[in-house]
Amino acid sequence: MMMFMWDEKDVVYYESIAHAVRGVFAICNYGAYIFCDLGKKVNDRLCCLCSLFVLLFFHLVTFSWPFLPENVHSYNGTLVNSSKGCDISQLNWCEDMTRVNIWVYYIAISSCIGIAFSNINITMNTLFSHIIGPRMQSKQQGMLEMFGGFGRMLGPLLIGFMYTNNGPRVIWLVEMGEIVLMIALWLFFYRRLVPLKMPADDAWTDRESTESEGRQQNGKQSLTGSVT
């Protein structure tokens, strides 16, 4: 990893640990919903909104701010045979890239991502299902999964392109912009993100009875007209 001057073996090792810790946070969070019935104790809208703020917080504390005291290690790949650090012969943004504290980064990515993603996964899907209401949801759920699939397909390609040409700062800025946009939209539509309320059964029964009586009356009139 360029930021912490690791080779491929170190990256695989430490990233595996970070993924495992994130998994523990996510499992504990899912377990709270399963065994403690957390879904009945939290507001889905507010929980999802707070999780978006947690994601924004993660990006803010792990951003490569220009005022950070230490720069990443850079080298010239045409002169030095090395795989640790940032190769200025291939990446023109290396010299200005500051280094994020390793402890801040991995504590934040393990806790913030592990908790926020699992909360969003539960609350957003639950709320989406409630908003659609007690009717066929295959089309809406299919569209949700389709756009999620597009994101998982195109995201790595776009991130790789931006990383090569602009570095991690631009990636962080784009992601923060997306999160801020989602927060703004969530706040704007907050009052509308509620379960669909269907008319009461009595109202439906009265309406159907009235329509049935009307059809019967029209049928009698038509029959009388035909006999006449």
Automatic annotation (TrEMBL):
Q: How does it sit in the membrane?
A: Multi-pass membrane protein
Superkingdom of origin organism? Eukaryota
Q: Membrane-spanning residues where?
A: 12-34, 46-68, 102-122, 143-164, 170-189
> Which InterPro entries does the annotation name?
MFS, MFS_Domain-Containing_Protein, MFS_trans_sf
Record bears the keyword Transmembrane helix = yes
Q: Which UniProt keywords apply?
A: Membrane, Transmembrane, Transmembrane helix, Transport
Respond yes or no to whether keyword Transferase is given for this record: no
Q: What would be one Pfam family of this protein?
A: MFS_1
Q: List, alphabetically, the GO terms of the cellular component aspect.
A: endomembrane system
Region ranges (Disordered)? 205-228
Subcellular localization is given as: Endomembrane system
Kindly give the PANTHER family that the UniProt entry links to this protein. INNER MEMBRANE TRANSPORT PROTEIN YAJR, MAJOR FACILITATOR SUPERFAMILY DOMAIN-CONTAINING PROTEIN 8
**Identification of the protein by name:** Uncharacterized protein
